[in-house]
Amino acid sequence: MIPPFSFVRIPHIIFGAGKLKELYDIIPKFGNNILLVIGGSSLKQSGKWDEISSILKKKSINFSMLSILGEPSPNLIDDPVAKFRDRDLDLVVGIGGGSVIDAGKAISAMMTKEDSIKNYLEGVGNKIHDGKKIPYIAVPTTSGTGSESTKNAVISEIGPDGFKKSLRHDNLIPNIAIIDPELMISCPPSISAACGLDAFTQLLEAYVSPKASPITDALAYSGMKLTSKSILLACSTGASDLNVRSEMAYGSLISGITLANAGLGIIHGLASSIGGLFKIPHGVVCGTLLAEATKMNIEMLQKQGPTGKPGLRKHAQIGALLIGKYDTEENKINEYCMKLIETLEKWTKELKINRLGKYGIKEEDIDNIIEKTGLKNNSVNLNKENIKTIVLNRL
């Protein structure tokens, strides 16, 4: 019997190589006064910024440009909002990695407010955003967070009392998401690796989530099928292959859709707490914890006996997928679960994902991390010792 479920709306999606050119015809439909939010350097170094700005000038589109360096903080949102609030913007366009897409989303949402974004962040402020915003178009240049298809913008403040929290409302989903794999070709291997593992983590956590539905399962499975084929290639010999980049871009897009509907597990719970306490890229946290957390989840499901069988079966389905098998034999569930763990460990090693200790995290920090960590929609309940083991094994 199909269980009850709900499914949130998604943006108007335009996907495919060369689709960036459609942006120039779409912009005038919103108006002629736009803000472009881009990253620190990658778009400029690739030559794409010169191309974009030249075309906008030729079309007499009035635009301002804002560069975002690193993951967005409250000040990184509040300052440009104060600067541009009175300029009667018709549209915000974010072109960049996950941080840029989140920043653009948050800026478009806060243009209608007079106070700080901190007041509207979940678990930080005491206000709820009403969804009023400047229209927003998301154009990702990396394949990772899937923020181009979600309703939340993640904002971080790093320090002892730091946080990594979301500004969230159904109406904050981008009006349009343009996913052009040509924009990902210049993404360096280290970023492609961390982003790719972040996307795969989101797909896997959504797939094994207690909130999963037949729709999220079908989408997540399709995303993992393509991502698993291309993740190593995207960081090596296939970096300039449009088919490889397309498969990674698809996986990232789908990961945003599935996480928005099925939720995420312990890996993203830890990424939230660690990301608020330490300066560490989100994709690196997810990538470095992926194999260890999956291993712990499987061990705890095995200890549950018959109760854990459905969760084990879903992990086994992905283990089978990763070795090219699309049917999961009931008597091979544990074998396929081991294949999943082995493959994730192999990816972590081959993609050279840093350990947490590289970013100044020490054993004495773990208890504080755990205190700030939620299980979210994890496939199995974990206690503090389980979570401590996950982190310790990747210090």
Please tell me about this protein's structure:
Helix content is 48%, strand content 11%. The chain folds into 2 domains: 173 residues, Rossmann fold (3-Layer(aba) Sandwich), CATH 3.40.50; 204 residues, Dehydroquinate synthase-like, alpha domain, CATH 1.20.1090.10. α7 packs antiparallel against α8 and α10 packs across α14. It is built from 14 helices and 8 strands. It has 395 residues and is an alpha/beta fold. The strands form 2 sheets. A 6-stranded parallel sheet has the order 1-8-5-4-2-3, sandwiched between helices.
Can you give keywords for this protein?
two-stranded antiparallel sheet; Rossmann fold; six-stranded parallel beta sheet; globular; 11% strand; alpha/beta; Dehydroquinate synthase-like, alpha domain; 48% helix; 2 domains; 395 residues
Secondary structure topology:
Blueprint: E1 12-15, H1 23-30, E2 33-38, H2 42-45, H3 48-58, E3 62-67, H4 74-84, E4 91-96, H5 98-110, E5 136-140, E6 152-157, E7 163-168, E8 176-179, H6 189-207, H7 214-234, H8 242-262, H9 266-277, H10 282-303, H11 309-322, H12 333-350, H13 366-371, H14 384-392
Parallel strand pairs: 1-8, 2-3, 2-4, 4-5, 5-8
Antiparallel strand pairs: 6-7
Helix pairs in contact: 4-5, 6-7, 6-8, 6-10, 7-8, 9-10, 10-12, 10-14, 11-12
